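Hey L., structure's done. Input below.
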Amino acid sequence: MIDLHLHSTFSDGTYTPTELVQTAEKRKLSAVSITDHDTAAGTDEAIAASETCGVRVIPGIELSVFDGDTHFHLLGYNFDRNNKRLQDGLKTLQESRNTRNVKIIGKLQDMGIDVSVDELEALSRTGQTGRPHIARLLVNKKIVKTIDQAFDLYLKKGKPAHVGRYIYHVDEAISLLHESNGLSVLAHPIQISSSIDAIEVLLKKLKTKGLDGLETFYPTQKGKFFNKVRRLAARYNLVETGGSDYHGDIRPNTAMAGNARLRVPHELLERMDRYHHNRRDVTA
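Output:
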């Protein structure tokens, strides 16, 4: 079993990359990928942790993108983390996040809510800080009871403390991943639409832009939707991937893959490796 969609303390997860790799070993997973938002900074730590166990670590990342009015997420895998264009592109995203955080805290303060940027930085500790950290700060200070309530009352689009941030058009994001010899994968299609027809329309378009894969194994993609999304992957010659989207304690009732709720077969990684090898041969 594998899990190619995990989040660590380098973005909005609550466990370090080392802790995630150690948990994967306990769960007898053969491979994992730390797919933090807009950063691959936790990958080196995860790889170092993997050297003392049998868990392989695949370099990964999750990017927020848009195409027209549609906003969704792309997963990137097996890219060169030292590629200059990729590093510069991620720096742009990270600076946008930092600017937004300050503006959100300012809006909350204007509403009479006692929070500060210093408190936020102390909570997030390292890596990328985002709205989930602000939500956790609001929970810790007993301003709201839950993360979801923080978003519903203050942080999501249309609410009083919401602030937008810069994200890449999907064309740019795929180009960044490909230029760094990585693969681009459409994340959790169920979160885009429950309509398979709508997903197919999007996949047709993204395939022409160079999309490499589709996340078919995902905790909330079950039954008919799961079977249909796998058929779409085959129809459009897309690599299948899968993962739990595990964030640790920040999301109750979730767990790393390898349990009855989500089992992602190792053969998906073998297929991704073959696809990646062949793609590099073609583009070299």
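The mean pLDDT is 92. The longest strand covers residues 60-67.

-- N.
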